[in-house]
Amino acid sequence: MDKGWWKLTLVVVVLLVSTYAEASFSHHMKDFIRAVKQIEDEDLDSDPAAVLKRLRRAAGLNDAFIQYFLPNADTGSSELPANLSEYFSKVLHHRVLEDAKEEGVVLTPDGSTVALGPLLLGIEAGFLSKTRGRARGLYQLTLAKDLGLSLRHGSSGTNRLGPDGCWDSLTSPKVFTLSDEPTLLTTAQVNGGMDGMILGREVSASSNLLKLSSLLNDYYNHQLDSKGMDGAPRLISRRRRENFKALLLPPLLARQVVKSVELRERLAGHPMMEVKTKKQLMAVVKEGLKTFVHVYMDCPPIISRCMWGAAPYIGTPTMLSLPLSYLYIHHTHTPSQPCLTFEQCSADMRSMQRFHQEDRGWDDIGYSFVAGDDGNIYEGRGWLWQGAHTSGQNSKGYGVSFIGDYATRLPSQNSMRLVRDQLASCAVGEGRLVSSYILQGHRDAVNTSCPGDAFYAEIKGWEHYGK
What we know:
Helix content: 40-55%
Mean pLDDT: 88
Oligomer: single chain
C-alpha cells in the first residue's frame, strides 16, 4: 500500500515538473535562449552545429530541400528531454493557421517578431561553412525559397509580402495574430531570414565558435547606454535592416531565388525548367524584389499601435487626402528623456496618449508617428488619419515627434536619420507624400514657446528635402 502510494506520488511529481518546465518557456526570445542554454548545459562539450542539429530534429525541419544543404538531422543527434522537445517543436514549426494565427515565431526585446526556422537554418549553414565568409545554402535556407514562393504564386504588389501582427501578451507571449490577410511571406519570416543571413555570414567568417545561446543573447539582448543607437555595436538586432542592406545585392538575391525555385521543382521530380519559363520567372522576381527592398530596406521598423498598447481612438477619425506635401517635426518636451528600450518607448507612447486624450481632450495621441531612441518608429495616428500636431496644418502634412526634450540639444543621429531618410522615403515610395516635399520644424508653422535653437536650426536644414 505504501509503495503504491509513493509510486503514484512520484508519477504526479514528474508530470507536474514536466508541465511546469513547458509552461515556464513563453514565445519570447529570452525564453527561447534560456531553453537553448539548458540544452548546452546538459552537454558542455557540444558544439553549436550539434545543438542546432538537435533543434532541427525536434522541430522536424528536415525536408529534402533542407537536407540538400545541411546534414540529415534524423541521424547522429541525441533526443532532447520530452518537455524541451515539445517546446521546441511548437516554437520552431512555422505555419499560418486559418484564423490568421502565426506559429513558429517569437517576440524579441527590440519589439520585432522573428520566425525561428530561417534564423536557425542560416546560423547552422554559417557554422558548417568550409570556406571563410561563405556559407553554402545561406540565401536559400533563409530567404530565397520563401521569396520564390511568395513572388511566384502570391498576389500582385505589396500584398505578396507581410503582414506583421500583434501578441496576446508582451510579458509572456503565447499567441501571435496577423493584422491583415496572410501572405506566403510574413514579416516575421522576413525578419528571421534577414537575421539568419546576418548571423550566418558572421559565424562563417569568424574563427571564434560562440555558444548558440551566447550568439543569440549578444544579438537580441544588448542593452543600450546613454548614447542610444549612436553608441551601439554593429551586430545587434536593432540594426537588422541596415546590416541586411549592407549584405544585400539584389541581382544576386534574384538569381538565388530562381535557383531555389528550380531546386524545389527538381527535388519534387519535375522536369527541368525551360529557358523561356526561367526568363519569365526572373522578370517576376526582379520586379517583386523592388517591393521587397522598399518595404524592408527603405522603410524603417514601425511599431504598430497594438504593440505599444494604444487605447482606442475616441470618436470618428478624419481621413487624410493623400499625397501630402509636408512633414512637421516636433519633440515631445515631456517625456523629457529619450527612451532606449521598446518597453520604455511603449510606456512613453501610452503616457502621451493619456495626456492628449484626458488632459487635452483630443481623440487620440496627436502625432502621426513618434521616433524613439531605441531604433524604432512608433505609429501614432499613422498614414491615413489626420493628426493634431501643428495648429492649422494638420490636414497638410504628417506630424512626427522625437521622444525627449531637445530645447538645448539634438536627438541622436540615428533617430534623425530614421525620420529624415527612411520614414520620409517610405512615405514617398508608397504615394503618401509628394516626391518633392518639405520637412519643417514646428516653429515654421505655429508659434510656440520652444526655445530650442539647435534643434530648430537642424530641422531648417532639412527643408525642401525630397526626390
